[in-house]
Design brief:
Blueprint (H helix, E strand, L loop, with lengths): L1 E8 L13 H10 L4 E4 L8 H10 L3 E9 L5 E5 L3 H12 L9 H4 L3 E3 L5 E4 L12 H10 L3 E4 L9 H5 L10 E4 L5 H7 L4 E4 L14 E4 L5 H8 L2
Parallel strand pairs: 1-2, 2-3, 8-9
Antiparallel strand pairs: 1-10, 3-4, 4-7, 5-6
């Protein structure tokens, strides 16, 4: 079945994100834009994934547990998992390898954690928008160990991308998918990177961009496991 997706959406847990990126606002905007699959991918954290997942079930929207992780090489990668248990394990692994710095909300923005009713239940004090001490290879290996899929993010960008920072895609990484941003046309990257599946998502930090890219995934069953299986091919 072909289902419309947006696999790169931030919540207000990401300090660079608008504070109205709450679970209810995200799910309702996804519903209005006919999305059936979304990925919640905050920077180096997954603390808002469960609230969005729980609410998504009420709207028949599959929410893939994920994170946008910054590697030691300052490359952004999206890591997706089939369940909450594995994404929480990944979060612990990542945060055990991050320098502990305090967030400055006046300078960088707040880092808000919600319940499914958009109540703020916690403010994350630790700065999330930072590089980890882990190489892209180590993040790939840990993601795979946990049954997940790693996707290099926004490869067209002049910074924080695998192409801009490494100049290539390492052959020892068994990567199946590459993500491009909403700012470029998909066709050009399909031709250039013929050996990869090209995903295009919004990287939404504000509500108006959710679902803007009109991408579709062909999955066998309406389950998160089926999405992970498709991305693993």
């Amino acid at each position: 079945m072909l289902l419309k997706y947006d696999l790169h959406i931030h919540t207000a847990l990401s300090p660079c994100c608008h504070n109205d990126m709450t679970p209810n606002n995200i799910i309702r905007m996804a519903f209005l834009n006919n999305l059936k699959i979304i990925g919640i991918t905050d920077h180096n954290s997954c603390e808002n994934v469960k609230a969005v997942m729980d609410l998504g079930k009420e709207y028949s929207i599959l929410t893939v547990p994920g994170m946008e992780i910054e590697t030691k090489e300052e490359i952004h990668v999206l890591c997706f998992f089939s369940n909450l248990h594995n994404v929480y394990n990944m979060q612990k692994y990542i945060q055990d390898h991050m320098t502990v710095n305090q967030n400055n909300p006046k300078l960088l923005g707040e880092q808000l954690i919600f319940d499914k009713y958009d109540n703020i239940i916690k403010t994350e004090k630790r700065l999330l928008l930072t590089a980890t001490g882990l190489s892209i290879n180590k993040i790939y290996l840990k993601t795979t160990e946990l049954g997940g899929v790693m996707v290099p993010a926004h490869i067209d960008r002049p910074s924080y991308s695998i192409i801009s920072n490494l100049g290539l895609i390492p052959e020892d990484l068994n990567i199946k998918n590459l993500e491009i941003s909403r700012h470029v046309t998909r066709e050009a990257y399909i031709e250039k990177y013929k050996n990869y599946n090209i995903l295009q998502s919004s990287d939404a930090h504000e509500l108006g961009y959710i679902g803007i890219c009109e991408g579709v995934l062909d999955i066998e069953e309406f389950t998160i496991e089926s999405i992970i299986n498709q991305l693993s091919r």
